[in-house]
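From the shared-data thread, chain only:
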Amino acid sequence: MTQTPALSTPPPRLAADHPARRMLEWIGEPAWLIDGHALHLCAANAAACTLLGLDEATLARLPVEQLIPTPEDTAFWLGVRAGDDGPLHSETVLGDAAGARRHVSRRIHRLGATPDLPACWLVQLQDRSTERAVQDEQQRTLAELQATLESTADGILVTDGQGAIRSFNHRFALIWGLPSELLSRRQDAAVHEHLRLAVEEPELYARRLQTIGQAALMGSTDQITLRSGRVLERVSQPLLVQGRPCGRVWAFRDRTELVRATHRIEQLASSDPLTGLPNRHGLGQALALALQRARTQHQPLAVLVLDLDHFQHVNDGLGASVGDQLLQETAERLRGCVRHQDLVARLGGDQFALLLREADQSAAETTARRVLQAVGQPHCVEDLPFTLTASIGVALYPVDAGEGDVLLAQAEAAMRRAKLSGRECYRLHQPEDGAGDRRHQMRMDHAMRQGLAQQRFRLHYQPQVDLVSGRIVGAEALLRWRDPELGEVSPAQFIPVAEASGFIIALGDWVLRQAVWQAAQWQQRGLQMPVSVNVSALQFQQAEFVQRVADTLAEHGLAGELLELELTESLLQDGDETLGRLAQLSAMGVRLAIDDFGTGYSSLSYLKRMPLRRLKIDRSFVRALPQDESDAAIVRAIVQLARTMELTVIAEGVENEVQRRFLQDIGCDEFQGFLCAPALDVPSFEQRLVNPPEATGPAPRPRLTLVRPGGPA
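Structure, as tokens:
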């Protein structure tokens, strides 16, 4: 406190045993008495001396105005001297003896004279510094919370237990298009009615709100479509105080662009841009639905696969543009050969397929003859007349098979037999044709099992390259097999056989162990090189798969961040069990990726819930980039989808600089393919790290001791 000259003559004070002193001590808080006539301190308790930092004798020498030296106190005592005896009760700031500022509440009121005590003024102080600090902290916390709410991309709404609006951010008002005058009036009923009328299905919206409100302790996540066309993800969590619900917090995220990108990918992935027909993927979806209905209603159906004969001669002789024109015309002729309930699809190149619902063998043969006649009608281009012919294969349900992919394969095999029979004809699937294939599969399955036991499998590693820096940032482990009798067998041949027989589980476990061992060897030599491993759906679905991954990482001492598991899109349909396993893997640090993205059917509702890090664009979309407009549009959409979901996207099968530059321009993150390197054995891969090709751009060169690892036993 500020010091002023003390009084020259110490004023009288109350005796040590005076009852007023006991009263002051009983008060407990800092307090003192001021003589009502002389206006000097006549008694102070110990709390007052501690607060002011002076003993009572020193305080008594100070003018009354200096005990609490504020303008308000000075004015008060001047008023007392002028005859004003009104009380004073207000907040002020007091400096203590240590120089610290204290927030205090001060009360001054007059006490009437008693036989033991003349008229005097009682001054009481209450230290509110702690309370004020708590209030200041609450205000800071509230300001930080408000700033956080305003900075988020989500619209936030907080309601109490009765649905009354407690708070919201501006993003909430913007997403829902709330008028400013409606918000300024804070009319909760009007706001809720605006929200209800803004959605496409108001009644369903109201029922859903009621359901959420009844589950007071549970959170919820769903999707809302507004009349404006916006699609919102709505997340609701209960607001709990001491474990009891007192309201809800609602978060609304605009998912419009994500949904549009997903729909665009599905549309592009299911249709052929040249002819407008469904593509192979679209045919697969339609065939699955048709078979489901055929089983229910006990009806037959047929699949026809058609391939134009010698069509390459047209492209070579007349040019690709004329070839495209003829494919479009062929598509129109095929449409004219089927009924409205049937489907025509383009499988790729000059190959088409027909799905005939409610069609037995007789109907299928009739349609095949009609198609041969329609395709064989003359064409004329640049005054050059010529004729196209076709070869057709036919497979029937339920006579030949009960699954869509098997029917399609059988029809393709029958079409190839038609080609061998001289073309311009059709052939029905013959069951005995598959006997040789089955014997071959049995032989290969046996050879694979022997090969694994005799260590004839090996892993090669294909570099994965950052498109911006050119650095090699990862390696995909790819399985290779050389058999003494079969020679070098392509994975495209033995992997389907392994999946069909179930041997893929043992084979996949070997790949996982070998890849983790190799990554651990690199890690021990100072090279942090993430390794990607393909996981089949059958392998992933094993009950002990997650534990097997954990045990393998622990056995070799590899950090989970250096292992990436590439999964197929089919797993996105398996629901909560898949999500649980993925969450366990992610908790270990294991990276998760979707392989060959775009070739299957991805459910957005599951995709956004999965702890994924990367999407991998299938090589079939990269092969014709950037000339093929359909493939270019699909790749752009996948990159946009990945960017929206904050995922890394990598393209496989990049073979030339034009493809690489296109991918870099549209924002793709990484690539792999022959432009950098094929799958390499370990010494070659390590050499590529030391001497990266110029095509991949500049890259740091880690120092390695190039020792060929022997691999785990």
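Residues 695-713 have pLDDT under 50 and may be disordered.
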